[in-house]
Design the sequence.
């Protein structure tokens, strides 16, 4: 699933005119019913599961805080939650660093081939995420392409084993698969940055570093935050990459544990309880993002 | 990823057009990073051995031959196309209605509506997947391709909303007003004036929804019954490690979609629009 | 014509026939409208895009261990019964259970359940009783496989036992130059980063064989014994390159040179040998765990008769010989076993079926399985 919070930044409608309560009901009846029935109610049902329990094979629907307690006191889950949070943070920060130069180039330097270059950034999203993640196995493996290159160039003599089936491997793969989600919002915001502003900073004697730090960076924050929300959220919930590239598929990141509770271990209540901290973290992020205007302006 | 976004400040001429080598090199390296796995997939689809090992031992078309005789893969592709089309159609209807309401009306719950519509794409797919699974299970609603479609349509709607809302906000309001002043009903105005103008944005939203649905695995995994979409089939095979036929499938999909994207860009360009 | 009979009539017809009826004026446009409304969007949109996965009557869906739908025996069955087998491979019995439970048990028609699983399926009320009289090959099974306890509940039969075998140790003789004799080889630091082990809580039973004193039954462990196994697994964790999910994955890990030693089944050896990879099997001195697999049919199977035919086919000569050739597993049909040459029987570990079978600690239902899952998860997470 592709989160694209950046899109939310596109909302910028101008003062709306007419006031027709009947018309609005007619327009929104279907979308709202759909969202309530197929999304909000399911979310509530999921949350309710967190307070139920499993009795051998059936779900016992009496209220209990047992699962919540397990999530926070068990030796495994807090560790994995923290690890997932750190992984998502590292991937997000790295994506920002990788995405900045290319976005700047596309926004300010590219001319003739701009459209083609932009298509080329997005295009990887059109090819299977699964297959791209899997391809990293071939690149990072003991007898993989990276090790072959390193040995051929004499940089290493033995194949490096920690590229694959490791957190390093997952980190590299995540940075690759989500990168376009960082580049796009960043590009959009940089492209809108008036060049006159940069010149002004230049004229006033700000060096390029000063211009970047005092002008470009603050103004591009909404794009950075929007891209970060997408990358962070996608990493927090993923279980495919850990399974293909991680060493211990079921327990590397929280997404794998949650998926296993639903697809293997058949402990839905525990799975639902494990989702709670993910929701809390992401909601906090969304609120912060909103402060930065990454979700578009709210007007009544 | 807004396909129809005409940017408000079209800054093309740039006074500070100094070439910066470090920047160009960094950009080039980023493209390499983005494309390395795709090149690997295409390369190995022609490998003659089963295991993806470096260097490639020999080349053959064996996997393409097997692919063409593999009815499971073609069934999965057909199902994925079907799911993508229906989900995109639903998303277009829901999304256009929402975008129109958000743009044309002022109401108190606007922020809430926008938030709710955007939620399925802000929260990770796994949340959407297991929430819907719990819901369908509690309702004793059997899982099938229809539950997959419901899941996909739910997170695709926001894409259409964003594209259409962005386009609507660029349209001069005077057009509508003129139409209404001349006695057209709101429905007529929408059909004759607004719709033709936002059509490119709707098409873009539909294409985006389709491609997103076609590649989706995380939500699909929880919502499928006995049906296997292409990503689910690929997942089942990749789990077993051995993948040459999958490489061939992916190569065909990569090349087809590249051709389609370039074609779409060319058509849009001819009619005076750009993908970006 | 009442709506109901109309719809019944139309449902039985091919679309082309319906069209012909309509053209011939025997059906009104309104009739057609009602019909399409009745059958819904599925069938109207379906033909337009080709059949998109709707289960046909002759589809047999199954969730199985890898290899159990191999073409060698599946293709002649499909041809003979005009059926299409749609198999999904599972990595663990837990996955099979979750899959069987999906959609109230209507997703899969059958499952190749190992000896630990049928009890859980039965308790969840997911299994269909099997009438042995309908199985032509049933009388040829060894008596011990006709009504074994793991598929017999309340004195009724709920599975057809067709294959069995051990979980053994596989190694690459080019790296591991002396044949390992103990499961301790999978805890040996000299193979650090070259070890893979099955990602399945049930494997606790295998590592319990290393406990001192060795438990009489490695699948009946008290809390203290579980804690001891957990220590072993925690010690092993940093040495493990990959916790594997599917057999094909182990084969790939060996062939790509990622690992040198792993636990696995004879079928994995077969796969590696077929690709000319380097592999050998070892039977550790502590003994081995193993599995006895049965075809179980879902209570809500779309096509129970066909499922029963498949089970019968798989305990017949073609299915049984196929299992020995494709999978290298033990089989349950006495006539077929006795038709094999002595050296082949020895290679398959079936010289004396009863005695050889008894040597393996067969998987069984584990009452405190939730604890096993907990221990496994905590120990395998770094």
Sequence:
């Amino acid at each position: 699933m592709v989160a694209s919070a950046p899109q939310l930044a596109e909302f910028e409608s101008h003062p709306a005119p007419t006031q027709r309560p009947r018309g609005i009901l007619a327009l929104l009846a279907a979308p709202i019913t759909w969202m309530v029935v197929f999304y909000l109610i399911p979310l509530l049902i999921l949350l309710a599961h967190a307070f139920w329990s499993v009795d051998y094979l059936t779900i016992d629907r009496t209220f209990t805080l047992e699962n919540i307690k397990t999530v926070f006191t068990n030796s495994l889950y807090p560790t994995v939650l923290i690890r997932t949070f750190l992984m998502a943070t590292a991937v997000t920060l790295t994506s920002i660093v990788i995405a900045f130069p290319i976005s700047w180039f596309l926004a300010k330097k590219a001319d003739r081939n701009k459209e083609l270059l932009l298509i080329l950034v997005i295009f990887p999203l059109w090819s299977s995420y699964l297959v791209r993640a899997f391809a990293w196995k071939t690149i990072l493996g003991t007898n993989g392409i990276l090790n072959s290159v390193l040995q051929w160039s004499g940089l290493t003599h033995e194949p490096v084993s920690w590229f694959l089936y490791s957190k390093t491997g997952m980190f590299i793969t995540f940075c690759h698969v989500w990168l376009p989600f960082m580049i796009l919002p960043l590009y959009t915001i940089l492209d809108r940055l008036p060049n006159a502003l940069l010149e002004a900073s230049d004229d006033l004697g700000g060096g390029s570093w000063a211009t970047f730090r005092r002008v470009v960076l603050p103004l591009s924050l909404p794009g950075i935050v929007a891209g970060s929300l997408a990358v962070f959220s996608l990493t927090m919930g993923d279980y495919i990459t850990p399974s293909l590239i991680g060493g211990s598929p079921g327990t590397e990141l929280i997404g794998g544990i949650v998926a296993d509770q639903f697809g293997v271990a058949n402990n839905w209540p525990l799975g639902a309880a494990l989702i709670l901290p993910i929701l809390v973290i992401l909601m906090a992020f969304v609120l912060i993002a909103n402060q930065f205007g990454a979700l578009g302006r709210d007007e009544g | 990823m807004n396909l129809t976004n005409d940017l408000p400040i079209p800054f093309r001429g740039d006074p500070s057009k100094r070439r910066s080598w470090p920047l160009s090199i960094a950009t080039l390296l980023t493209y390499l990073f983005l494309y390395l796995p795709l090149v690997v997939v295409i390369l190995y689809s022609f490998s003659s051995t089963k295991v993806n090992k470096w260097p490639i031992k020999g080349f053959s078309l064996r996997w393409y031959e097997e692919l063409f005789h593999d009815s499971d893969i073609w069934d999965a592709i057909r199902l994925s196309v079907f799911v993508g089309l229906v989900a995109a159609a639903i998303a277009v209807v829901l999304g256009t209605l929402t975008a129109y309401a958000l743009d044309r009306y002022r109401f108190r719950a606007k922020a809430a509506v926008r938030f709710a519509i955007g939620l399925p794409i802000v929260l990770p797919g796994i949340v959407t997947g297991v929430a819907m699974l719990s819901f369908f299970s509690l309702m004793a609603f059997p899982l099938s391709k229809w539950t997959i479609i419901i899941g996909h349509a739910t997170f695709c709607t926001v894409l259409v909303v964003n594209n259409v809302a962005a386009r609507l906000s660029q349209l001069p309001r005077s057009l509508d007003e003129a139409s209404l002043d001349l006695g057209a009903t709101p429905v007529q105005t929408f059909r004759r004036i607004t719709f033709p103008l936002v059509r490119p944005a709707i098409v873009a939203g539909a294409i985006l929804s389709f491609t997103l649905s076609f590649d989706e695995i995380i939500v699909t995994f929880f919502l499928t019954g006995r049906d296997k979409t292409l990503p689910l089939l690929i997942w089942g095979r990749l789990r077993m490690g051995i993948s040459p036929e999958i490489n061939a499938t992916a190569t065909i999909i990569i090349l087809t979609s590249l051709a389609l994207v370039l074609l779409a860009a060319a058509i849009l360009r001819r009619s005076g629009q750009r993908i970006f | 014509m009442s709506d109901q009979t109309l719809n019944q009539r139309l449902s039985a017809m091919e679309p082309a026939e319906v069209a012909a009826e309509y053209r011939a004026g025997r059906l009104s446009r309104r009739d057609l409208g009602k019909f399409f409304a009745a059958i819904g969007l599925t069938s109207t949109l379906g033909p337009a895009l080709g059949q998109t996965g709707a289960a046909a009557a002759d589809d047999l869906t199954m969730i199985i261990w890898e290899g159990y739908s191999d073409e060698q025996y599946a293709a002649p069955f499909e041809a003979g019964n005009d059926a299409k087998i749609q198999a999904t491979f599972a990595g663990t019995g837990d996955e099979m259970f979750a899959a069987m439970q999906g959609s109230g048990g209507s997703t899969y028609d059958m499952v190749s359940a190992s000896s630990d699983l049928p009890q859980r399926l039965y308790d969840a009320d997911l299994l269909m009783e099997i009438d042995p009289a309908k199985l032509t090959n049933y009388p040829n099974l060894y008596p011990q496989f006709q009504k074994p306890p793991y598929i017999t509940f309340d004195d009724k039969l709920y599975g057809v036992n067709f294959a069995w075998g051990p979980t053994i140790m596989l190694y690459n003789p080019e790296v591991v130059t002396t044949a390992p004799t103990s499961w301790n080889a999978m805890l040996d630091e000299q193979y650090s980063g070259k070890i893979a082990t099955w990602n399945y809580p049930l494997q606790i039973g295998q590592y319990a064989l290393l406990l001192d004193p060795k438990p009489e039954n490695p699948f009946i462990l008290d809390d203290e014994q579980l804690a001891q196994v957990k220590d072993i697994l925690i010690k092993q964790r940093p040495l493990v390159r990959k916790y594997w999910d599917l057999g094909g994955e182990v084969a790939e890990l060996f062939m790509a040179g990622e690992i040198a030693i792993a636990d696995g089944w004879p079928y994995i050896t077969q796969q590696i040998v077929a690709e000319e990879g380097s592999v050998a099997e070892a039977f550790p001195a502590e003994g081995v765990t193993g599995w006895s697999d049965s075809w179980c049919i879902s209570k809500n199977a779309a096509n129970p008769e066909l499922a029963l035919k498949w089970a019968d086919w798989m305990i017949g000569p073609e299915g049984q010989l196929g299992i020995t050739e494709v999978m290298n597993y033990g089989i349950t049909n006495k006539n077929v076993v006795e038709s094999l040459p002595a050296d082949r029987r020895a290679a398959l570990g079936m010289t004396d079926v009863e005695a050889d079978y008894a040597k393996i600690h067969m998987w069984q239902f584990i009452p405190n399985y939730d604890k096993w899952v907990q221990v496994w998860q905590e120990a395998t997470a770094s």
Q: What stands out?
A: The interface with chain A takes residues 92, 94-95, 97-98, 101, 120, 123-124, 193, 199, 237, 240-243, 245, 256-258, 370, 373, 377-378, 380-382 of chain C (CB under 8 Å).
